[in-house]
Amino acid sequence: SVTIRRVDYTPPAFAIDKVELEFDLAPLTTTVTNRMQLRRAPGASARDLVLHGEDLELVRAEIDGKPWTGVQVSTDGLTVSNVPEQPFELTLVTTNRPSANTSLSGLYVSNHNFFTQCEAEGFRRITYFLDRPDVMTTYTVTLRASRADYPVLLSNGNLVETGELPDGRHFARWHDPFPKPSYLFALVAGKLVAREQRIRIRSGEEKLLQVWVEPHDLPKTEYAMQSLVHSIEWDEERFGLPLDLERFMIVAVGDFNMGAMENKGLNIFNTKYVLADAETATDIDFSGIEAVVGHEYFHNWTGNRVTCRDWFQLSLKEGLTVFRDQEFSADMAAAGGSPEAAAAARAARRIDDVRGLRQNQFAEDAGPMAHPVRPDSYVEINNFYTMTVYEKGAEVVRMYQTLFGRDGFRKGMDLYFARHDGQAVTCDDFRAAMADANQRDLTQFERWYSQAGTPHVSATAQYDAAARTFDITLTQGYGPASADAKATQKGPLLIPFAIGLVGSDGKDLPLRLAQDGQVLAEPQTTRVLELTETEQTFRFVDVAEEPLPSLLRNFSAPVIVSYDYTDAQLTFLFAHDSDPFNRWEAGQRLATRALLSLADAAARGDALSLDPEIVAAFGRVLRDSTLAPAFRELALTLPSESYLAEQIEEADPAAVHAARLFFRRALANGLRDDLMAAYEQNRVEGLYEPSAVDAGRRGLKNVALSYLADLDDPDDAAELARAQYDSADNMTERSAALVTLLQIGPSAARAPLDDFYLRFEKEALALDKWFGMQATRRGAPGERVLDDVGALMAHPAFSLKNPNRARALIFQFCMGNAAQFHATDGSGYAFWAEQVLALDAINPQVASRLARSLERWRKFTPALREKMRAALERVAAGVQSKDVREVVEKALA
Ligand code: DPP
Ligand code: ZN
């Protein structure tokens, strides 16, 4: 395999002034006529033009209207020899085979309609091109197809012409006035209908918004449209960024590798992030739609108007756009509530985002695929659409805002667009805009982009009662990491470290920071310290009593913090910290510590026991009706088994499972009445609404139900769950009830499971849930959930070719059911190897995601490790794609 390196970047030798594409669409063979106006880049002297291309048949090549014979086709492209010195027109006619394209990259067919997916390198599967993001040009696209089969013909930009053709065919011509890289090209053709809405933006211009779906799905598009309208308003309000095209389209497709794609003016979405109604979608689905609609819309500026110079800069658009969608979701959740409710809603979003980051990105950063936010090399770029590029990248962007405030961040954004609109740029350009707009030297901050691994900060504190000073010493470094990751770790980072000091009454003490003999600024209760050295001591003065430090408030940097808290101190912070993130964090620290010691005892075969003080601490939060239900739900949710396994040197998933189950049972038995009360008090009456407040209440109620199902006698819970299933008028309640019944046991769940299937037989997204909940079922001791998974693979509704379905069953089992996947007989790993190889032949991108579920194999007990290695070696021996090969070879290295 060929490794591509960032240091080898060279600018393109040719520029494309404009391109005209004509498509004669037919499922078996589609013909593409590509007419490009080309010129040598200034200073370039290459005689040959080298274009990217894959799986294409070349029919004809012409230069300036004359046949050109100097063309050489290879497996990855086309070389056109001795091209003219002066600007010239190159015409290439090629064919491709959409219905045979199971990779879902390039032009493909899904349910008889045509779709494209071009990011990162799919455009080269449509025509020969300079398929790299720094080649931007304007596109005019003509689509021709049978009118009966493909009444709707869409591409980027504005519709300029439509008309009839002989033989029942018709055409549509689209022009996109904005120069764009090829990865943002899109076309859609088929039997689709649109929900439409016209809006007026601040300039007074009217815009047409459309959400295109299959006809039977039209009633499920209301929420996506509403989310789009909110996104457009929000980006104008918060960042002054308007919608720049006459129309903006979203199209839903059931076969899609990713969540969605931000093609200019024609976003293509996985149905999962468009279609929703109360009956088929959960609160989590609704909030996913809002976030992803926002995300793709926000790319219109951060990604499309200003794009990436090369794929190493992917986080330039992804980290920034994830940060923007997180802020959007938080603002939406907070809208309309009291200040307290708004703060609670924001905190809940922050906790959710950080939990995902710590569970998945921290593990990635500690494993064989660890890479910096701006990677230095890759074999297959599709493998680098990662948690690090997206989620850690978003944290890096958030740190600018933490350092400079909202206004300073906005100034940096304004300067970024003033400098770079219409360009393909780098992460350094973004950092320079932030630095210059805020008159700040951000040289050291560059290390956040270039160093892999999760930074560790350890804190120690010293109170001097006589001098009334409190010293906090912060030391930064990295934990164990792969050799490649270690090699990137060159020096200390600039870490914005937010801190508060909590007094014995539970209230924040005023903070007066002393530096160089000076007391800085007015007292405040949270201060962002700037840690820049490997070790640094900060002194607070006039501290009236010995405080308890509240560290890294609101998770002000993507780091692991250690501090020697006692259980009693954590319990105190869990009850009092004014920073809601850290209040939640104190409970998580308390639980994690107990869970890890329980896992240790379980691994040794010792008896398990839990301090009643810990149960009491959770009980107090559960009962505290001044806390938002969404917060209480998050506080009651224990760290996942996979997160806990990451914290252990040599993980034993069975022991972790036993520990977590024991902890849950202890809470259930200790808090039975409180859980029952939480269940009763948080029933939501009236019409279903996916609001943050209602969702929080349902969430708390359902987490209470799930604990009640872990009582020694789960009969009451079974009865509640069954009644909830039967009376549910929305998917959140219905699916939560069914998951709880599955947790109690297969016999309790059998009838509702059958009912669910019959009810939603024709609803693909709901059926995904049906597969998923069976794959993640806990299973009784000695029971093999894998046997169910095997049987479900033979179900007529199962298909490996549909990524959502494969993810619902196979990924959910391998990534969401740790104890069963890591069964000591190795059956989970054998199943994994078989499915990775089967998917590899169909869809390498999907296969490669599944392949990653074994990359932390070295962290497990020796017996499991050996079985995992054998499975990895089996895949390495049989793999075809470079996608999967890169993952397994890095894992085994
Ligand atoms: N469509 C993917 C995203 O928006 C890749 N750009 O993140
Ligand atoms: Zn994105």
UniProtKB/TrEMBL annotation:
Gene3D superfamilies, per the entry: 2.60.40.1840, 3.30.2010.30, Neutral Protease Domain 2 (1.10.390.10), Peptidase M1, alanyl aminopeptidase, C-terminal domain (1.25.50.10), tricorn interacting facor f3 domain (2.60.40.1730)
Residues of the Peptidase M1 membrane alanine aminopeptidase domain: 223-448
Annotated Aminopeptidase N-like N-terminal domain residues: 27-184
GO BP, one annotated term: proteolysis
InterPro entries the record matches: Aminopeptidase_N-like_N (IPR045357), Aminopeptidase_N-like_N_sf (IPR042097), PepN_Ig-like_sf (IPR038438), Peptidase_M1 (IPR001930), Peptidase_M1_dom (IPR014782), Peptidase_M1_pepN (IPR012779), Peptidase_M1_pepN_C (IPR024601), Peptidase_M1_pepN_C_sf (IPR037144)
Record keywords: Aminopeptidase, Hydrolase, Metal-binding, Metalloprotease, Protease, Zinc
Name this protein carries in UniProt: Aminopeptidase N
Organism: Pararobbsia alpina
Lineage: Bacteria, Pseudomonadati, Pseudomonadota, Betaproteobacteria, Burkholderiales
Gene assigned in the entry: pepN
